[in-house]
Amino acid sequence: MTISRRYRPAGPAFAAAAFVIALTIGSQASAALAHDAVNESSPAEGATVTELDSISLTFGDPIINLGGAGTAFVIQVIGPDDRYYDAGCTELSGTVISAPVELGTAGEYLVRWQVASADGHPVSDTYTFDYAPTATAVKAEGQPQPLNCGAGTPPDMAADVNPTTPSPSGPSGLVVGLLLGGAFIVVVGLAMTLLMRHSRRGA
Asked: How far is 134 from 140, CA to CA, in rounded Å?
């Protein structure tokens, strides 16, 4: 009985400590995943606009600047005629990247973006919106090639319109999040197991 009394306080104390650790791991996993995703876009995916002079994307965390527009962060806008309608280099402000646009003919436009993830690797994706200009709207001609900003457009952005996954040389935000999530489950399971053992000893 003396041994049981000595171990009885350890159960709740350990469970409390494990709970705090689990919460910390869970918050770190959420942060790792939030950085790689767009929280808000203007225009929104699938939206129809009658006029537009800029595109902006808001992320969960500040974007890493590894060399300026065209290398670490970039927005490209491709029209239904496969021409580029971004009218200036992408700008960065905290969690937001934005680029001026001058649209041409009516139809579906593709927005292609790339940023540097938390581990420094490029993460990119695409979405579309529809342009339905008024009869008096001025139609831009667009460019046959992406704008050359600073060090130039990243090759993986110019290659195709498919999302670009992070480099395999390091873990992506999703992989980190999954690993941290797994650690979260292990810690909670261990805490529950030890708590049950201490409870049985104290019975």
From this structure: 14
Residue 149, number of CB atoms within 10 A of its CB: 18
What is the CATH code of the structural domain delimited by 38-169?
A: 2.60.40.1220
**pLDDT tens, 76-85?**
999 999 999 9
- The number of C-alpha atoms within 13 Å of 188 and in the hemisphere containing its C-beta is 11
- Contact yes or no for 140/85 (Cβ under 8 A): yes
Q: Where are the domains of the chain?
A: 10-34+175-202, 38-169
pLDDT tens-digit map of 93-147:
988 999 999 999 999 999 999 988 766 778 889 999 999 999 999 999 999 999 8
Distance CA 194, CA 203 (A): 14
